[in-house]
Each structure stands twice: as structure tokens, then as C-alpha cells.
Design goal:
SH3 type barrels; about 80 residues; six-stranded antiparallel beta sheet; alpha+beta; 2 helices
Length: about 80
């Protein structure tokens, strides 16, 4: 099932499947972050009240993004 990153919980791992309809500038920024199809992400921290989402990308890089940006990134949750 494909979800937005903001729908995951702390500790969840997922594979990026794409970026939904967003402005070209936002899509370019997400791609520059390294949010590419088939990238592995892990949710590290969720700020309360709709604040930023912190995630680990490809097991190496830590990035934070606004909840609205995180919702645009479509992922498939990995279940172990």
C-alpha cells in the first residue's frame, strides 16, 4: 500500500515509490535531498502538532522536512 511519509510512525521503514503532484521547485528540492525512487527511509522523529518529520535516508543521511512536504513523498512501508 502506498502512503505519504507523514502517515508512518517512528521506527517505520519504507521504500520511496514517487513524489505526488507538487510544484516543480518542491519536487526539485526533494530530489536534491536524495528522495529518489527505491530509496530506503526510516522515520526517526515526528514533531508534535504537525511539525517537521526527521528521517534517515539510505541508512546514512539525516534530513528533516515539513509535514506537507513529507505527505507529497509516496512510500511503501516495509513490514518485517
Amino acid at each position: 500500500m502506498v502512503l505519504g511519509i507523514s502517515q508512518l510512525g517512528v521506527g517505520d521503514k519504507a521504500v520511496v515509490r514517487g513524489i505526488s503532484s507538487v510544484s516543480a521547485a518542491l519536487k526539485q528540492r526533494l530530489l536534491a535531498f536524495g528522495i529518489l525512487p527505491n530509496s530506503l527511509i526510516e522515520i526517526v522523529r515526528l514533531a508534535p502538532l504537525g511539525g517537521p518529520v526527521q528521517l534517515r535516508l539510505q541508512g546514512d543521511f539525516m534530513i528533516s522536512m515539513r509535514k506537507e512536504e513529507a505527505q507529497a513523498v509516496k512510500v511503501e512501508k516495509i513490514t518485517a
